[in-house]
Structures are given as C-alpha cells and as structure tokens.
Amino acid sequence: DTEVTQTPKHLVMGMTNKKSLKCEQHMGHRAMYWYKQKAKKPPELMFVYSYEKLSINESVPSRFSPECPNSSLLNLHLHALQPEDSALYLCASSQVLQGARNSPLHFGNGTRLTVT
Amino acid sequence: AQSVTQLDSHVSVSEGTPVLLRCNYSSSYSPSLFWYVQHPNKGLQLLLKYTSAATLVKGINGFEAEFKKSETSFHLTKPSAHMSDAAEYFCVVTTSYGQNFVFGPGTRLSVLP
User: Fold this and answer.
1) Which of A31, A56, A110 sits opposite B43 (nearest CB)?
2) Which residue of A has its CA nearest to B52?
3) B63 phi and psi, to 5 degrees?
4) Model confidence pLDDT, tens digit, residues B57-103
5) Do A90 and B94 touch (CB under 8 A)?
6) Contact B44/A4, CB-based, under 8 Å?
7) CA-to-CA distance for B30 and B9, rounded, in angstroms?
8) For the residues of chain A, what is the DSSP string, one character each?
9) Residue B2 gets which letter from DSSP?
10) Interface of B with A (CB under 8 A)
11) Exposed/middle/buried for B14, CB within 10 Å: 0-12, 13-18, 19+?
12) Quick check: A43 and A34 in contact, CB under 8 A?
C-alpha cells in the first residue's frame, strides 16, 4: 500500500467541465509533485511545491491549476481540458533534506483521467 | 545537465532465470540514483536507491544494483525472476539538492513461465 493517497482513482470529464484531483500524504514530507504519464512513457514533471510554495512550473498550460492548502495536501484543478490531456496523473512527495543527499520520491497510485 | 539511458526498451526472461536491466547516466556532479517499478495502472514503487554510501545497493523483492562510477552505470539485477516481477522499470537520477529528478525511458520486463 502506498503512503500517498490520490482521489479519485478514475475520472471521466468533458472538455467544458471543472474537476479537481486530490493528493494527501502524512509522512511529513515538505515537497510535493504532480506528474503526468502517458502510456508507455516515463512520468513528466508538471509542478513542484516546496514548503507549500510553488517552486517549479514546467510550462504547464493554464487549464491545469495546482494548489497546496497545507503541508499534507496537494490539489490539481482542471478546467477546459483537451482530449490529449487524457493520462495517468501521479502525485509524489519527498523530504527536503538541507545540505544532504536527495530523498527519493514516494508516489501515489495515480488518477486515470479521460477527457471526452 | 543530467540524463539517463536505459539500453533495453523490453527484456524478456524465463521464470527462475537471472534479470539484468541496464541503466547508464550522465551527470556533472555526484549523482543520487534510484530504481522504480510500475505495475499496470499503479504508481511507481521505489525498489532501491544509491546516495553515495555503499556502491552495491540491496533493495526490495531480491533486487540489487551496483553503482559503477567509471562506467557511469547503475544496472539492476535479480538472481531469479518471478512472474510477479513483470512490470515497467524506471531508472532515475538526480544531482541537485532540489527536486529535479530525471527519468529514463523505462524498460518493460516480461517473465515467461
């Protein structure tokens, strides 16, 4: 079982809908990530939050809007998506180790998004 | 800049035979390296990590990997494959203290009965 929980597991939405993906972790990690993964491809980084502040935005279209309400929660708000946005959306978290080597990413099981 | 090459997009082995998944990296600084496994419709699970301690790293489910700086490699091995090992495997490198993780393209492992 993963320690990063994502809801919903599956989501089907039309191009005019507004929906949100949710992610929660209770490991005390202060960095949280959104990745997008297409079939047979590695995950692609979308956003990184560090200490609840957006630290990396990989030129993601504005129809994706991240939010980090507190250190345990991460949301991804979706609006006016396109069919090509259909993918597995993965949330991950990691420790932020000052002056030390990198802590690994801990992934949730993802939300399978289909845009019709 | 960092990069990761996984030399085989698909590896097929028979159950009970050894597994070798190859990973080469490019990095300007001392890297941290990770192997992840992904079963269908699941997230990525950490198998093992190298962060400048012992060069031979043991992970979960009988997997291990050896960091070879001279060859810039971090190959994943397992002495005896099990049917449940069939999955996608990703090698990941990072060299910063930030959050820049670079993924390899992945290797699909098939295990034949």
Assistant:
1) A110
2) A101
3) -80, 150
4) 999 999 999 999 999 999 999 999 999 999 999 999 987 656 689 99
5) no
6) no
7) 26
8) --SEEEE-SEEEE-TT-EEEEEEEE-S---EEEEEEE-TTS--EEEEEEETTEEEEE-S--TTEEEEEEETTEEEEEEES--GGG-EEEEEEEE---TTSPPPPPEE---EEEEE-
9) -
10) 32, 34, 36, 41-46, 49, 51-52, 90, 92, 94, 96-101, 103-106, 108
11) exposed
12) no
Tokens describing residue A8: 């919903």
Give the length of chain B: 113
Rounded to an integer, what distance in angstroms lies between the CA atom of residue B38 and that of residue B50?
19
* Structure token digits, residue A73: 């929660």
Residues A32-70 have pLDDT tens digits of: 999 999 999 999 999 999 999 998 888 899 999 999 999
Question: Which two tokens mark B79?
Answer: 């002495």
Query: Considering just the CA atoms, what is the radius of gyration of chain A in Å?
Result: 14
